[in-house]
Description:
- The chain is an alpha+beta fold and 255 residues long.
- The protein folds into two domains: 33-156, no CATH class; 158-255, 3-Layer(bab) Sandwich (Phage tail protein beta-alpha-beta fold), CATH 3.55.50.
- 33% of the residues lie in helices and 37% in strands.
- Strands 3, 7, 8, 9, 11, 13 and 14 form a seven-stranded mixed sheet that branches.
- Strand 13 and strand 14 (244-251) form a beta hairpin.
Amino acid sequence: MLRINLISELFCLTLLLVAEVLSQKSNPQPYLRQATITQTGSVVHISANSFRPLEQVLDALQLKYGWVVDYEDPQYLVAADLTSGPVGAAPSLLPAGGNLTVEFPASSAEEAKTLQLVVDQYQRSNNPGRFELRFSQGDFYVVGIAAHDERGRTSKQQSVFDLPLTFPAEERSITDTINKICQEITTQSHIAVTLGVSPRRILDRNSVKLGGNKESARELLRKSLDATHHSLYWRLLFDPTSKGYFLNIHSSRIP
């Protein structure tokens, strides 16, 4: 009888432990509206927690140092990389991000070195997607290059902004030029890219004569934004529900 009672107690304890684990998973640490960035002595500490923690760290670095870096999601296509969260009035699929912490010496906060450290730290995390830091003509880009596939393996991907585009040079508003770039990407890749949030006054009131001759979409987009003579940057965000991208463009907030 004593043995039966012990087994029963152990079974109940196991159920309680399982319930506690499930409770922790269903109630994760709340996401932050923005990353916290602090300095203790000579060490800078950044702590992010969001659906896209790498993007959140880049935003924190921009606020502190004025570093303007473009960011591009990979395609998040399988359940292992996804979670649900509120978007507008209804829940939607989102990248299953979480925590990301980065530390570096304040005395050596060089942009290229620090950005590489941030990307390397992300690569060592359990957060979804894999990225690389790129540099071209004075601009830095954090580009999504891999995510999990249906077999659970990390599979390489080509960024849609790597695609070479060819279209005639015409005088267009910046808005129309960006929409043209998005249209060409969509036609070539069969992955929808749609202009989302943007400073429309700036984009509508400025124009550029621009075309492409097998030039990457990324370079064409950068030329378009530079033609406004404003400090603009982008966030290319993958929407797992529609399996397309939203291209959000922002005006930088430099300290």
